[in-house]
Amino acid sequence: MKNAFLSLDIGSNNIYAVLFKYEQKPQILFSIKRPSNGIRKGDVQNINEVVNSVSDLLEEIEQATATNVSQIVIGIGGTKINMNNSRGIAYISGRNNTVDKETIFRAQNSSKALCLPPGRATLHAIPQKYIIDGNEFDVEPLNMTGMRLEVESAIIDVDLMMMNHIAQLSDSLGIRIPTIFASPLSGCFSTLNKREKDLGVVGIDLGASTTTMTVFEEDKLIFMKVLPIGCGKISDDICLFLQIPHDDGEKIKITVGEAYPDKVPNQEIIKLSDFCANEEKSFKKKDLATVISARLEQIFDLVNKELKQINKYANLPGGAVLYGGGAMTKHIVELARDCLKLPVRIAQPEFGGFISDDPGFAVSIGNIKFFCEDKDDNEFNNEGKGGGLIAKILKRFDVKY
Questions:
Q1: What is the pTM of this model?
Q2: Domains of the chain
């Protein structure tokens, strides 16, 4: 099949992959989740393990669908992705002092000139507001008149080592990776609706080793933070609580774990022998829920701490939207409501009529939305003009920056 693309979200525990085609109209063909290796806290620790995991996944997808993957789009996240705000300025040079595309482009480029620490580069520059001689506009003020145009942008920057790892992945697989997106934006792009972003909302990606929070208000990105703790810690807690191997703790978490102890009958007993060989002990399901809720409360407390810093604690009418693998924990909505003091829902990532009931697919589906709807939009993409080290890295696998 021609024009077959693969969207990847490579997490610490799992790889979420979605196969799609893009002809006159985009269409999702196949989705799959498989274990991941070589990633910790969203960062590559062993590139060879990552390559092997993705290579095995590609082989399985191509055999299952009789399709050759020609290109990959990928989301990157983890603790080494960051957001800053920047302002750019351009003098209006259009005819009769009207704002033309060239003036807007110069102002946007000026906003990208943020002084970043060594070893970091801009991945996205997202215009938030335009100002002409003190007058504010939420959209591009094309054909408006004035002397000076300013643009306020949200700058998403990444560690160059992450880009090097993607280049290595592309070279090892022999497949082009033409487009790279920030995972926090991709996840929100497939899960948050416009009304929520207008009212004020926080998207919370409950990953295995990190928790990412992304806040929108008046349809603008106002805050993004990656917290270095995730729901994988719950399995560790269960292992210590029951004194069992980690794999058995993960199995118990997924199979019988619940997040809200008040919803669990006090008399319900779980036999450990159902999950672990040679174990005769039993435990109360309510006690297990208490262990799980304690870790989730810690995560939500950290989210609240960041929301307080930006004066949005319990003050986002659009509520909180949970996605990522941890969002599948039973009764997590009730616990999150109590902790966050906000309306809460679990995301169902969607694109083009395709809806996934697994919130872990949010980033990989959001990548497709970016690729298909915004690949020519300088507001989000990293295909603009530019140079420097990152351009040289991306040039290795035919990516424009």
A1: 0.90
A2: 4-79+160-185+353-395 (3.30.420.40), 81-158 (3.30.1490.110), 192-347 (3.30.420.40)
